[in-house]
Amino acid sequence: MTDKFTWRRGDLEIAPVTEETWNLAYYSGDNHLAVSTLDGLVQHLLQRDAAVDLHEEIILLLESTKAKNMPPELRKELVQHGYLTVIVQGNPAVLTATGNVATSWKELVAAAARGAFPQGYVLAEPCHVELKFHLPPTTYATTALHNLLKATIDGLGQAMFAASPGTKLTKWHTEDWWITSLAASKKPTDREPRLEFRIVSGIQPCPAPAPDRNLLVDATIAGSPPLFASNMQKELAWRKRLRAQVMLPIAIPPTTRLAAGVIFTIEPSRMISADLDNFCVPAMTGLKTIALSARNVVELHAIKQIAGESDELSTQMRIWALPG
């Protein structure tokens, strides 16, 4: 066998793959096991070491092989369980970026996503997206987190979702409305800027404030949540309702780092037509009406959900201060 990839456990090597299976082989003996499902992989690892940290070992395995040759079903299972993280090197395009700048970033993100899924993988189910932006210090300080979402999700969507039915606009119009929850964060870095993203099946709940976090805002703004660039009058009315409901308990220092959790309860028709990132933009820009800066938000958790028979259309918003 040639072109072996060495894993970080001493006696385990990954044999070259066939088109049918993803082969894990131990060279300390004749034991050989073909693995094509996540359950098979887990059982294989447990047989080797009952005390193994499965989460850590699977991530290390993916890093070693770069996840290039595994069967599509196994790859899908790993994605669904949040094991596959994709890295994109470069400065992300902001919401107001010119066409060329935005397109270049979208292409980078799309290429990285396709590289992680060489056999192809089209999402057609509710999913959670996690985006971690590592930014130059100046960009980190001056760029609001919500302004980084659109171009990034457009690029991700082009590789991971089907084209929107009946759309004849651009290739960036896809069914990324399947993203029903997201977690975005930004951090400063002195290294090369990069994005790390992963996709998980299902909806991830907005976290509750940890004990070391100071809850500043806990409000529910009634009415249908506004979308970015759709109806300014509706957005202004929403901001007015937000301002009427929120009175900050203390003056917030301008350098305070903030985390935001937002739940958009919306009409059924908008669940399959309106993108989650487009709900986030008006919600975050509205913070200025309550004397908070969206630039200080370094963590953003958002969910969109259908209003039940007894539910009111609303935006539930929590803002808390981070320690340090």
Report what the structure shows:
The radius of gyration is 22 Å and the shape is globular. A hairpin with a 5-residue loop joins β3 and β4. The protein has nine helices and twelve strands. It has helices at residues 38-48, 54-65, 72-80, 99-116, 137-142, 149-160, 232-245, 268-271, 276-285, and strands at residues 5-6, 12-14, 22-26, 32-35, 85-89, 127-135, 179-188, 194-201, 214-222, 258-266, 297-306, 314-321. α4 (99-116) packs across α6. By secondary structure, it is an alpha+beta fold. The strands form two sheets. It has an eight-stranded mixed beta sheet. Strands 1-2-3-4 form a four-stranded antiparallel beta sheet, with helices on one face. It has three domains: 5-70, no CATH class; 85-201, Holliday junction resolvase RusA (60s Ribosomal Protein L30, Chain: A), CATH 3.30.1330.70; 214-321, 60s Ribosomal Protein L30, Chain: A, CATH 3.30.1330.70.
Task: Jot down its keywords.
60s Ribosomal Protein L30, Chain: A, 4-stranded antiparallel beta sheet, 9 helices, disordered N terminus, 8-stranded mixed beta sheet, 324 residues, 25% strand, alpha+beta
